[in-house]
Specification:
mainly alpha
Length: 137
């Protein structure tokens, strides 16, 4: 079934994606200035990147092109953050293991079940955010 989104739906999704873009951009800017990777997790960034890829699949399959475009920006920023985080020798091995596990798993899941890509994106983003939420609470 093809979804024909209204202008309001596109605007709300792009606004939500805008928060991700601003968050990732400010984090990347701070990281480039200070070089301090403290508080960043290569595993969480890998899960977020996988979630972003799943969301891109969802948006493209439903012809939601504005959210798709903003999600591409989020992916680029997340991958840049992941690259900086992997420069930390403590994060390097965990990050490579996460990439080696999550990457093929995501690819297989999205190829096999493209209609569920939104659920995969939600699950990956939820899994990535849970440890941070636990620390905050």
């Amino acid at each position: 079934m093809l979804v024909h989104p209204s202008l309001l739906v596109n605007a709300l999704i792009v606004a939500g994606e805008g928060f991700w873009v601003v968050s990732a951009w400010t984090q990347l800017r701070r990281l480039v200035k200070t070089g301090n990777t403290r508080g960043l997790s290569a595993v969480s960034l890998t899960l977020n990147a996988a979630g972003n890829i799943a969301w891109c699949t969802y948006f493209a399959s439903n012809h939601l092109w504005y959210p798709f475009a903003t999600n591409i920006v989020v992916i680029v920023l997340t991958i840049a953050l992941l690259g900086y985080t992997l420069s930390n020798h403590k994060q390097f091995v965990r990050g490579l293991i996460a990439i080696a596990v999550v990457g093929p798993l995501t690819a297989c899941a999205l190829l096999r079940f493209p209609a569920e890509s939104g659920w995969f994106g939600m699950a990956y983003n939820w899994a990535a955010a849970t440890p941070q939420l636990t620390r905050i609470v």
